[in-house]
């Protein structure tokens, strides 16, 4: 970031978060308000606290959702339909069966949760996928089905903070790799966002974002070893078990971080062949890296063409392992230095 652009880094939702605002009167107050807002949403959304709203809903099999979280639930269930079930916000039981039952120690240790239960590999519960319903602020969770908003909650939080606090000044919120931004940015009015996938023959490069969002999903970082071998945190709703995909990293651009996060995850789970079709059909600009290191761009052209890099990009070390649950944000995406 250029000298003089106020920024704040702090842990939240199991991730390293970054908030940057345009210089000017009240900038420090905006940073403080952003941190308070993110902390308040985290307290409602985490699955690792029995006092959170998500935990309360899971404990009682659903119920009335607060007006604050109603838009998030509406969006999550709408995206379950839009993705054809490749995304499902009610896979917490399957995620816990895979071994992700506790939070990670820190966002810099994306491979070792604090403790992993020793249990045989779960067969999954694919028949429960899609069985929960949400309508008119009422969530219904059948027996054994639990809510996990995870990554979409982080993207949605970034969107909400930028919407509420960034309407009159440039602002970027990075929730562990789920990034939302409003203009103007520090580099000729744009925000340079460098994408870092696993080392390979091609460099995904840097995108100049005026406003909107970018999010990355991967199976490469949040992994652990169970009795039957390596596992990771992305659950395929069709099987109820850890996704098996020939893609390792997917970055998606869009107008909202929550939607970009869900589409990145869904395309990764779908795999290279189907993921390419999805990106083209939905008009989503995607950067995908396959297991063999090949990197391709699919779908609609971005609003700002990828650049070789206006400046040296830096990683935010946002190997997120959401304190809210299933999400990725194992993405290594961050504003570039200029």
Describe this structure in words.
Helices cover about 25% and strands about 25% of the residues. Helix 6 packs antiparallel against helix 7 (about 270-280). It has a single domain, classed as Roll (T-fold), CATH 3.10.520. It has seven helices and 19 strands. It has an eight-stranded antiparallel β-sheet. With about 350 residues, the protein is α+β, with helices and mostly antiparallel strands.
Tell me the quaternary state. Answer: single chain
Q: Total number of β-strand segments?
A: 19
CATH class: Alpha Beta
Low-confidence region ranges: 105-127, 308-338
Helical proportion, percent range: 25-40%
Q: How much of the sequence is in beta strands?
A: 15-25%
Radius of gyration: 19 Å
Biggest sheet descriptor? 8 strands, antiparallel
Overall pLDDT score: 80
State the fourth-level CATH superfamily: ApbE-like domains
Helix/strand order: EEHHEHHEEHEEEEEEEEEEHHEEEE
CATH architecture: Roll
Task: Reconstruct the topology from this structure.
Blueprint (H helix, E strand, L loop, with lengths): L6 E6 L2 E7 L5 H19 L7 H7 L2 E3 L5 H13 L9 H7 L34 E3 L2 E3 L9 H16 L5 E5 L2 E5 L8 E6 L9 E4 L2 E7 L4 E4 L2 E4 L2 E2 L4 E2 L4 E8 L2 H14 L1 H11 L3 E5 L4 E4 L7 E2 L24 E4 L3
Antiparallel strand pairs: 1-2, 2-6, 3-5, 4-5, 6-7, 7-10, 8-9, 8-19, 9-18, 10-15, 11-12, 13-14, 15-16, 16-17
